[in-house]
Each structure stands twice: as structure tokens, then as C-alpha cells.
Design brief:
The chain is mainly beta. Helix content is about 5%, strand content about 50%. The protein contains 2 helices and 18 strands. The strands form 3 sheets. Strands 2, 6, 10, 11, 14, 17 and 18 form a 7-stranded mixed β-sheet that branches. A 6-stranded mixed β-sheet has the order 1-5-4-3-9-15. Strands 7-8-16-12-13 form a 5-stranded antiparallel β-sheet, with no helix packed on it.
């Protein structure tokens, strides 16, 4: 497991202060936008009492509260639809790839799912489970988001018509990458939960992430 020195933790307090100062009629996008580089979108941490989810920008070693970040997926992320049935019938999708070389070449995010800050011997079976709790696009439930590995091995799928591909367990102290696919442009709100068992007690944390997919 790599050791990290965190340069900065950006908390939700700024967003809260702004909300008190003047409430907007509609939710505004976060001030911080991340659109390229290695970013662990789902980054679980345990402080000895509670689980937490952060966004960890590995380029700057900065950690954010998910509510304080907008993840940007530009038009440059468009690729030919590889033809997996769960990706719909469109000719193109927006893809954040599972290799850093591909992501850097396209100038898009290289998104990670991390448990590397969780140490062994704390969680039962040394595993935690990530669950896609819900997904919307432009405010409505969407089938247009999925995460898959390799040649179409689904990890997560937002399709509400199925109950599968909503949860996946990962060993602690690991770093995981897969393809993040979006079938349509729009503003996505993706809600994820991380859950594990500590001393016979179920611990969890749930956060919502904003992803803007540009046409």
C-alpha cells in the first residue's frame, strides 16, 4: 500500500457557509471541478469510529468532500460503443477508461475505486462493499451509467429494471480501476454507499457525486 501525505482536506464547511449566506433557488455546481488526471472518485477511509467517503485527487494529493466537487466528462471522452448490451444502442458513449495511458491520451479522468486507506484486521473478512444506491441524469432516474472491467464485465449498472450489478465487494488496502461509461450527455448525480462490519457492527457512509457529461 502506498503511503500518502495529504496536502489539503477541503471540507463541506465552505459549501455550508455559502448556503447560509445566500440560498440559491436551484443547487449550484461545486466550485472545484476535476476533469483529468488520476482521481479516486470513491475513496473509503476509517477514522476509528466511522467510515467516510472522499474524492482523492492523486495529482495534487488533495482530498475533497464529494459535495464540494464536480467531475467533468468532456466531449473528448466520446468513443465508439463497444457493443455490450448494457451500454444501449447508441453509436457512441462517453468513457473514462480503466488505464491511465488511455485516460491521459484522451485528456479525461482516470477514475479509481479505493480501499487502500483501510488497514487489514479492522473489517470482517478484510472487505468492504460499495453499492450504487441511485443514479439520476438531469433530475430523473437514469439507465445510462455503468462501470465495467475489461471486455464487458459489469461492476455497477444504474438500470432500475434489474437488481443485479448494484453492489461489489473489495478487499481492504486495494486500488481498483474500471471503465466508467455514460450513454448520454447531462448532469448525473450518483449516490454510492460503502459498508463494512467492525466488531460485529455494520458501519457505512453514503455520498452523492455530481458528474457533468458534455456533448
Amino acid at each position: 500500500m502506498r503511503a500518502f501525505t495529504r496536502a489539503l482536506t477541503v471540507s463541506g464547511s465552505l459549501a455550508a457557509a455559502l448556503a447560509v449566506a445566500g440560498l440559491a433557488a436551484t443547487p449550484a455546481l461545486a466550485a472545484t471541478t476535476l476533469g483529468s488526471g488520476h482521481v479516486d472518485v470513491l475513496d473509503a477511509e476509517w477514522d476509528g469510529a466511522d467510515l467516510h467517503l472522499h474524492v482523492h485527487d492523486e495529482e495534487s494529493e488533495t482530498e475533497y468532500e464529494p459535495a464540494d466537487v464536480t467531475l467533468s466528462v468532456p466531449a473528448a471522452a466520446k468513443v465508439a460503443n463497444p457493443g455490450f448490451g448494457f451500454l444501449g444502442s447508441g453509436s457512441q458513449i462517453w468513457l473514462l477508461p480503466d488505464t491511465e495511458t488511455e485516460a491521459d491520451a484522451a485528456g479525461v479522468l482516470f477514475p479509481g475505486i479505493s480501499t487502500e486507506h483501510l488497514t487489514t484486521g479492522v473489517f470482517a473478512n478484510n472487505t468492504v462493499t460499495y453499492t450504487l444506491v441511485g443514479a439520476t441524469r438531469n433530475g430523473a432516474a437514469t439507465e445510462d451509467f455503468s462501470i465495467y472491467a475489461g471486455s464487458g464485465s459489469r461492476w455497477f449498472d444504474s438500470n432500475t429494471a434489474i437488481t443485479t450489478f448494484k453492489s461489489r465487494s473489495f478487499g481492504v488496502a486495494t486500488h481498483n480501476h474500471a471503465n466508467w461509461a455514460f450513454e448520454e450527455a447531462g448532469t448525473y448525480r450518483l449516490t454510492f454507499r460503502v459498508q463494512g462490519t467492525v466488531g460485529g457492527v455494520t458501519e457505512s457512509a453514503t455520498e452523492t457525486y455530481t458528474v457533468v457529461v458534455s456533448s
